[in-house]
Design a protein that fits this description.
50% of the residues lie in helices and 14% in strands. The protein has 150 residues and is an alpha/beta fold. A 5-stranded parallel β-sheet has the order 3-2-1-4-5, with helices on both faces. Strand 4, helix 7 and strand 5 form a beta-alpha-beta unit. Helix 3 packs antiparallel against helix 4 and helix 5 packs across helix 6.
């Protein structure tokens, strides 16, 4: 009897998720949609902290300047995806503070990395500044390097 391989587990940050909802050409958008497609087919697990919808909404409103109706539509879609949104963990939060203090990153971004480390997942991010600052940590994958099989 052959057991199925465990699904790949990824923590996605808002820099990846926002790419699913913008209409203009974004770098690495093909990889972002490939990840979403794999998730929809049950080939991987996607998780994130519960703050993900806040960060995505903020980016869509402030950076992308989408109208409220488009933001609501994106958030409804995000909710329907049923990504594993993890509640606040004080242990994860403590690790995020350590990462932020060591690397000079925000607590918000560091929490995504701490969650990935805690859950044995790989953090996928398109945030190049964060990648440079946290390169000493394992388990971080630049979206541009995401290579999922067909």
């Amino acid at each position: 009897m052959t057991l199925p391989l465990p699904a790949l587990a990824f923590v996605v940050d808002s820099s990846v998720v926002v790419k699913w909802y913008v209409e203009k050409e974004e770098s690495d958008i093909a990889q972002a949609f490939r990840l979403l497609e794999h998730f929809g087919q049950g080939l991987c697990i996607l998780r994130a902290p519960q703050l993900l919808p806040f960060e995505v909404a903020n980016a869509l409103v402030t950076s992308q300047r989408l109208p409220a109706s488009s933001v609501h539509e994106a958030l409804n879609h995000l909710r329907e995806l049923s990504i594993e949104l993890q509640p606040l963990s004080w242990a994860t939060f403590t690790e995020a503070v350590e990462i932020a203090a060591t690397c000079g990153t925000t607590i918000y971004d560091s929490y995504f990395l701490a969650l990935a480390l805690e859950t044995g997942s790989t953090l996928v991010t398109a945030d190049e500044v964060f990648l440079r600052k946290t390169r000493r940590y394992p388990g971080i994958l630049p979206l541009r390097q995401l290579d999922l099989p067909d």
